[in-house]
Amino acid sequence: MILFSSWQGEVVDNRNKKEPKSPKAIALPEEFKPGEKIKAFFGWDGIVICDDSVDPVDMALRYAEAMLNESCGKCTPCGQGARFMRTLLEKMAKGVATNDDIEGLRSLATLIKSTSKCSIGQTAPVPILHVLEYFGEEIKGRVSSKKPAQAGRYRYAVTAPCLNVCPSSLDIPKYIEEIREVRFEDSLSTIREMTCLPGTLGRVCVRPCESNCRRALVEGSVSIKWLKRFAADFEMGHRKKPRLPQIPPSIGKRIAVVGAGPAGLSCAFYLALKGYSVTIFEKSKEPGGMATYGIPDYRLPRGVLTRYEVDIIKGLGVEIRYGVEIGKDIMLMDLHKDYDAVFIGVGAQTSAKMGVEGEDKGYRGFIPGVRYLYDINNGMDPYPEGKRVVVVGGGNVAMDCVRTSFRIGKTDVHLVYRRSRAEMPADPEEIHDAEEEGVLFHFLCNPTRILEQDGKVVGVELIRMELGEPDQSGRRRPVPVPGSEFILETDILIPAIGQAVDLSFLAGCSDMKLTKWKTLEVNPDTFETSIKGIFAAGDCVTGPDVLVRAAGDGRKAADRIDQYLRGIEPGPSDEERFDRLFSKIKVFNKNEKVEVAGGMERKELHKLDPEVRKWIFDEVEKGYMPSEAITEAQRCLRCYRIGMIAY
Amino acid sequence: MITVTIDGREIQTEPGKTILEVARANGIYIPTLCFLEDLLPIGACRLCIVEVDGYDQPQPSCVQVVTDGMNIRTTTEKLLEMRRDILKLLLLDHPLDCPICDKAAECKLQDLVYELGYDRAIAEGSVGVPMLHKPPVKWSTIGINYFPSRCVACQRCVHVCLERVGCGVLEAGKEDGTPRIFPAHPEKCIACGECLSVCPVGALTEAVSPLKARPWEKTKTKTVCPYCGVGCVIELNVASGQVIKVTTDEAVPPNYGTLCVKGRFGFEFINSDKRLTKPLIRQGGSFREVSWDEALNYVAKKLKEIKEKHGASAIAGLCSARCTNEDNYVFQKFMRAVIGTNNVDHCARL
């Protein structure tokens, strides 16, 4: 039960109330970790107190200490004022403050809040001001009675809207600040603390951070992705030696990683950095998994991931064995026996079924999206005679399929999607680029039948759809309009409506538990599968998801494997628990009025002309020049903020 | 062109400029401490805050660009109060050692305090102003002293090192909760002293000259640095007939306010007691002080003798890097036209 809350200006005071109300603005979980109750939460938008044993003055003091720790000292009000604020709160907590001190604290906190450069200074005084405002009587009583505060136990962490939603937990404000300060290599080191694929993510990430950027509430989000790409390209382009942490002496334990995709590579990289010897088993001839075979070259030039970034990982002593298929060449359980731990990151590599008549018949011209991209990335056209293409689906794979089609010489390219443009899960930028290149979109249509002649696809029958009530995902469910069938002639039909996990690697391993979606079941806290010592992350656990999540989960799994091999009970670190807590509280408030007058537009990248680029595989986007990157980095508002719990 | 209103004045300006730029270009004064014209805005001191219509919180004018129709106020009672409070924070434990500080009377903080006024502490009895003079700590070069207690953490030095010099020696950080600057990468330091030249207070002081002087005791003489072919404009700060410091002029090409280690710190030789100021002639084992006429006659006679006996090629001339271009020009002309040899060289070539 919440005793008091002032979150986002919504004051709920249940002290001495018979019918307690609960605040709408905040949903605070009961526990921070099993057995550790959250007694109070102080944060950027106010205070929440759940237990009357919490002394708000003591907590405000500790919050001010946290602010003092986190204040970077780069602006006067917060850098110089935080110390003084702590001094005044210390006096209050000791019970020796005067009324002047309290007034001084109030005006100081207001000054820091109004004039500081970044959000540490702009938000940290908020809970302190709330304590002064809503617990004023108690504070006054303490001034007269000279009663010292009761010391409690607290934990705090720093977050930011972008950082909190990043599945790889990149310290985004920090690396952007380093670009602003012309410390490009430091910036890349910061990125590498959390991901080993900066050049890849800098090109193809779906950037949840940018939709949670406070600058977007002013005039447009900071281009976080392109800045990351800039830092990565700077090192690569200037042939700088990658700066990596010192590898500790070998621990002498061996780990097998199945699949050299983003999850497997990330897991291997961070395990190697901890001193383990890692062997990756990869079915294909090249590393990168879906990032290599699923993403065309015009978005991610082959060399960035498969040569440069993988070479860095190999440079740490990670061995990659190509052409080895688990479940065929080596059995999973043999790996389990031979290695101290096994990590599975096989991804979701097979196309999901559309449920359309004729899709199992093996017609020439019916090519699943993932297969289509795989062949093209291997340098061949899966069906050279076919010139007309219809792709079904609205995700990024569908976008890759349509845009690649022009590049291998297809003349008519259509995209069929059962909902409308607003519901398309693909990156809006990709949709825009595809449209520029001349892809014809058919929204609110769904295939019902494949038309064939002599075993070849000659067309597809589509039915018009209309949007009904929202479903579980929040998107409006499409409903067929009876009798609205029509025919679209085509040579090639490509379903790209999702992928499934190819479970053939589990041959001879019946103990592995699966979810109802036929993905591996893992403990979300430990990434461990139902078999002890076998861990898994990435698309084979989550189902088809974004690269940045696979990479992030791969890194987290590396931490758990390390804990497991050191004999520590594997589990999330306090930072990860804080991340979860903060995402429940929600760091980004899209209704916030950001007090920045704006006027600095987002710096867009130069792109090749659509008429030129649609026929070639050259990279479409040209990265930032250093001066452009610095100007863009200046737009970052550095929205760090502190969340503190009492337990 | 867009129109903005600053303090009731309508101003036509180009988009993309900051409020501070537009205000300064139109003669409207906004106080700053960390701002440097040729750098990207630092935004550290927060003294340049202004009020913009539609926003509850003040906007930093050095960072904030103007947008069409913006209505800006630069001097309201609320802003002045905030600026004063920010200054108070800077003075919280800034030592009042102005009488022994090199920067006294040239100090931006002194000026700002004088301008905005400083009357009372934030909360009575809580501000202590240590009067103790703390010794300087090590900087990235021996030519500069750093007094952390005087530092206002404006980070001009950090950004000048990054953006103007391109070295990135300095980092802003904190020590015991107090902001200060760290020479984090001394190995990258080229001792150019740009950090010293931009320090608004006496946190960075020049450690070369033993003699110091207040600004009104100094005369500044503009000249050209003799060290290399760039020809930077320098100002020799002279007091008691001695060069005590080299500064430069931000408005003048080719260096626009920048200097290198030689130009800024290489003036010791002028006042060196090892420097020859009178001609000497060696007689036996020792030198005899002579008049210029005697010395020149002696040299002319000897050169003539050598030239007659062994030819002009037996003579070579070596001149000094510390002479001006004009001196060196005349010197080589003399060697070629009068002596008749091309045997000329210069110590800076080594």
Largest sheet of chain A: 6 strands, antiparallel
Number of domains of chain A: 4
Sheet with most strands: strand arrangement of chain B: 2-1-5-3-4
The stretches of 5 or more residues of chain A where confidence is low (pLDDT under 50) are none
C-alpha end-to-end distance of chain A: 15 Å
Radius of gyration of chain A: 27 Å
Superfamily at the CATH H level of the largest domain in chain A?
FAD/NAD(P)-binding domain
Assembly classification: heterodimer
Description:
The complex is a heterodimer of chains A (about 650) and B (about 350). Chain A is α/β, with parallel strands linked by helices and about 650 residues long. Chain A is about 35% helix and about 15% strand. Chain A has 24 helices and 25 strands. In chain A, helix 3 (about 100-115) packs antiparallel against helix 5 (about 125-135). The longest helix of chain A is centred in the N-terminal third of the chain and has 19 residues, at about 75-95. Chain A is globular, with a radius of gyration of 27 Å. By secondary structure, chain B is α+β, with helices and mostly antiparallel strands. Among the domains of chain B are: about 1-75, Ubiquitin-like (UB roll) (Roll); about 210-275, Single Sheet (N-terminal domain of TfIIb), CATH 2.20.25; about 280-350, no CATH class. A five-stranded mixed beta sheet of chain B has the order 2-1-5-3-4, covered by helices on one side. Chain B has a three-stranded antiparallel beta sheet with strand order 10-11-12. The interface between A and B is large, with 43 and 50 residues.
